Amino acid sequence: MAASIPVDDERYVLESQIRELYGRCAYTHKTHEKMAERASTYLWRVKWTQIILSALTTGGAIGVVFDANSAIYPLATAALSILMLIVNSYVKDIDPGQDAQLHRDAASDIWNVREAYLSLLTDIRDLAFSLDDIRKRRDELQGQLHLIYKAAPHTNAKAYSQAQDALQKNEDLTFTDAEIDAFLPSSLKRARST
Asked: Phi and psi (nearest 5°) for 128?
């Protein structure tokens, strides 16, 4: 186990900053995942609303054909057609599927940087890595992250709140040794049976 770094040490200060960057990255990654989930759910709802309205409109049209004397079928069909026109007009200029994909892509890119920060946190404890090497790597990661953020779609407070719940309450990024051991061959397990 690595020795802890003294609080007044320059390495400790650098580690503290990288820990902060890692945390921000983790939140941003999870927020983009939540935005993608929200956009996918919205797309699913819109598509099902369109299908249901279309089916009901078709049913009303069939009702008019087979019961021409009824006044309810033409009125219901007209009302459903107007409702379907409103829904289709509302969603014609938005593409929740594309929005979901943009958020998935951003999350994937951010995940890669987040994992690089985690590796850097591990490397900082190795005294073979100089502070200059660590700073250089930190600056490279910051540059990568800037390019990702610049191209990424915006997120909202609701997705951030969901990300916060996932990370703090559901512990999405944490694993017990037993959970990790379940994925590893016996030679790499921490909890060895005796």
From this structure: -70, -20
Q: Could you give the CA distance from residue 102 to residue 109 in angstroms, rounded to a whole number?
A: 11
71-120: pLDDT as tens digits: 888 999 999 999 999 999 988 888 889 999 999 999 999 999 999 999 99
Q: How far is CA 17 from CA 10, 119, 126, 133, 145, in A?
A: 11, 14, 17, 15, 15
Structural domain boundaries, residue 34: 30-155
- Which pTM value belongs to this model? 0.78
Residues 6+ away with beta carbon under 8 Å from 131 = 10, 11, 14
Is residue 44 domain-resident? yes
Within 13 Å, how many C-alpha atoms sit on residue 127's CB side? 6
Domain count, the chain: 1
Mean pLDDT, residues 121-149 taken together:
94
